[in-house]
Amino acid sequence: MVGLYFRQSSGLNDGYGRDLTSAIVGSQHFGPSVLGREFSNTLGMSLVFQRKHLSTVLLNFPYLAPLLEIVLFNASNAFYVNPLVLNKKSSVSEHVDCRYVPGNGARILPTIVSVFYAEINAAMRGGDLVFVTEDGELFVRPNANEILHFVGSARHYVSKIANDCRRVSVVIEQYNLDDATLAAFPECHLVQEQSNGAAPTRN
First and final CA of the chain: distance in angstroms? Predict the structure, then answer.
């Protein structure tokens, strides 16, 4: 389990998570998640882009700018960004973050996944990020205004939220693709359905 994940203080002001949450749920693109059958009764949106289009993303989604400017690693050249809202009716079952790229038929794993926790109620029961390893399950409690990075091949799920609390995060899959795979990766757009762009796939 050593090296599976690490935490990072975001360094963002305490009000950023609140403002980010308001912008996400108020967006015209906000709605039922398109992340696959492992995600039940979850809300959000999905944005896929290559690094060369980062300036376009920052221009069109300015509320993501403070986060993306600190969380993206220099070696990453492609990204799948998922604001994700869960409540007690939601479930996220065990999975690996894996994408199917229609441009070349490849299945790709992120190099690293970075999660910013925008809204975590201290009274929330459940809602832990749970890693599934050969040594058993590792429960990681999310903290508001924190960034958690984990290796892209990690199997994981989110434990069921047991009370009336909302869990808001932004999941950023970061890829370091070779030239051929990068050329087939979507340039920059919102994913409207699983077959549109770098679609989710079960692994």
Answer: 20
Q: How many CB atoms lie within 10 A of CB 117?
A: 20
Percentage of the chain modeled with pLDDT above 70:
94
Residue 109 exposed, middle or buried by CB count within 10 Å (0-12, 13-18, 19+): middle
CA-based angle 106:103:170, to the nearest 5? 75
Pairing of strands 112-120, 106-108: unpaired
Distance in angstroms (rounded) separating the CA atoms of residues 186 and 47: 10
> What number of H helices and E strands is found in the chain?
4, 17
- Which residue positions in the chain have pLDDT lower than 50? 1, 195-197, 199-203
CA 101/CA 199 separation, integer angstroms? 7
Name the 3-class secondary structure at 46.
coil
- Cβ atoms of 11 and 170 within 8 Å: the answer is no
Rounded CA gap, 47 and 56, in Å? 12
pLDDT at res. 201: 43
Domain formed by 5-200, architecture: Sandwich (2.60)
Residue that has been written with the tokens 């609390």 in this structure: 165
Tell me 181's DSSP state. Answer: H
CA distance 68 to 81: 10
**Four-point Cα dihedral 162, 163, 168, 171, nearest 10:** 0
